[in-house]
Amino acid sequence: METSTCSKKIVQLRSSDGQLFEVDEEAAMSSEILKNMIEMGMPSPLPLYEVDATTLAMIVESWNRRLQEKRGEITEAELERWEEEELLKSKEPDGDAICVLLAANYLEDEHLIDRAGEAIAHHIKDMTVEEVRDYFEIENDFEREEEEKVFQQNAWAFH
Amino acid sequence: MSQRWAFLLGKSFSSRRSISPSSEILEEDARFAGGEEEKGASPAAAAGEEEEEERWAGMLPDLMVNIIRRVEASEERWPRRKSLVSCACVCRRWREIAIALVGPPRETGKITFPSSLKQPGTRDLPIQCFIKRNKKNSTFYLYLSLTQTFMDKGKFLLAARKYKYGAYTEYIISLDADDPTQGSNAYVGKLRSDFLGMRFTIYDGNPLFNGARASGIKASRRFFSKQISPQVPADNLEIGQVSYKLNLLKTRGPRRMQCIVQCHSMRGTSDEESQLESHSMGSLVLKNKAPRWHDHLQCWCLNFHGRVTVASVKNFQLVAMMDPSQPDGVGDEETVLLQFGKVGDDLFTMDYREPLSAFQAFALCLTSFGTKFACE
Description:
The complex is a heterodimer.
Chain A: E1 10-14, E2 20-24, H1 25-28, H2 32-39, E3 46-47, H3 53-70, H4 76-87, H5 97-107, H6 110-124, H7 129-136, H8 144-158
Parallel strand pairs in A: 1-3
Antiparallel strand pairs in A: 1-2
Chain B: H1 2-15, H2 22-28, H3 43-74, H4 82-87, H5 92-101, H6 105-108, E1 127-134, E2 139-144, E3 155-164, E4 168-174, E5 187-194, E6 199-204, E7 237-245, E8 256-264, H7 272-277, E9 281-288, E10 292-294, E11 299-301, E12 316-320, E13 336-344, E14 347-352, H8 358-370
Antiparallel strand pairs in B: 1-2, 1-14, 2-3, 3-4, 4-5, 5-6, 6-7, 7-8, 8-9, 9-12, 10-11, 12-13, 13-14
Helix pairs in contact in B: 1-3, 3-5
């Protein structure tokens, strides 16, 4: 994990599966949860019970990049492109947007919630009902009678 | 639902990519791994997991709302708006969210779900539609206009097919453009005319399914009667009558049209709860605005504001008649609540506003086709 050249405070985070990450404190403040923990003086490593190492690695990198953008080391456009193509893999339907959204929600990182939400909405806009169910692994819980009407409604919308 | 989401979490956090050895341990207890140090597989841990699961189940609806709201906001116009209808067909929870996010046409001016077709139109500017007639299959198709021209493809709303019987004629109104019949799930209502085509009755079939709670409706239990079998429509509820009187004194003179329609009360209700629960129906009495005779043009004229371009005895504008028995009654005698008229051989415009709904407006317009003694 990158650290900046200036001497900045570092915090240690622990993912749900026990991996430790060192992060620039300023970068970690992107998460309201972490901000609170840091301000309360909680001892390191700060535990993140619901974010696994893989996802946390991606999130930390996104924080670092946001910090770089804030410092003018990269442009906003470059940040956005990275977020779309690398983080959320917006061009691939099986991208990581859902993982990122769930983790961002837990971490209370508004910016990432926004980006990931946007990416997911964009993915599902052109999907059929079945495809949306598969994507989110949602069960069809309509009763048979309701199902027929639902089918009718959908047919109407697509006419 | 919470189990499904929990499963999703487990899958996304561990099985998609496994990089650390510890993740193998986590495969079995994929949901809420607490890290290697916390090894206690005790009842307390299990109880902790259940609490966590509830926390997730509670949180996730917010994320679903977030996503569906984005879809709604970005796809305001048809045909793209179908994405939102698709969202509402995914599962019950999504349906509730999608419906809650979409306001009624009266407030938003947008038609979204089939249920929008039985909700009142907008207050100020009318909702613009057009009707295509197909003489070969005796069917009329109602579309929402998508542009200001008369040439657009439109968004299909309703179809009505004419069925002639001995003593009467019926127009079956349906969501199904290909097969508008009374027996189908797509049946919305019908118009029945007498033999002469002078008196018509409008019937509302099954209320359009939108999953909303249909409880506490005071006015008529039958309006939202629960259907047992989708194949047999609920009782057809009579919601309107139209009668025509010909102008016998002047040939080719305008005919007189009088309508009574059961409409939702126009009391402004601010929140959806009270809209559902304090529903009340009132009778709206409409008549057609009398055209004026233009001597030098030698014809009867109405100002259709450019929305009607071909003279026809079928063309009309309906205004409300003031009803002294309804102090908070709707409209005035100048506001045109429904306008209908010809723009091409088989093409007509239909503009409607509250308290009329698209379904009611369509049925009223169909009566204009049904009158046998019309001269053109």
